[in-house]
Amino acid sequence: MTSKGEAILAALRAKSPQFPRELAKALKLDRPVLTYQIKALLKSGAVVATGRGSRDRQFSLPGRSRPAKEVP
User: Which of 3, 13, 35, 42 stands 20 to 30 A from 72 (CA)?
Assistant: First the structure.
């Protein structure tokens, strides 16, 4: 994974979900660079996209299917 990919994941850990514009601005990346990096993260399953179209698309980390059990 690239350093930009790691930075994207760190930003999404801090605040998730985020619009592409917010994410690019926070990381000081051009939108095409962000798009290129996000495609690889989406393909690997490290990031998920939500929203119906390009106007309301947001990126976030994948959620767990079940919450973690607490140890008594």
Answer: 13
Q: Record the pTM.
A: 0.78
Other CB atoms within 10 Å distance of the CB of residue 11? 17
Angle CA 50–53–58, to nearest 5: 35
Per-10-residue mean pLDDT, the chain, length 72: 90 91 93 92 90 83 59 51
Q: Which residue type does 47 have?
A: V
Q: Which of helix, strand or coil describes residue 59?
A: strand
Write out the CATH class of domain 3-60. mainly alpha
Backbone conformation region of residue 23, classed left if phi is above 0, alpha if psi is from -120 to 50, else beta: alpha
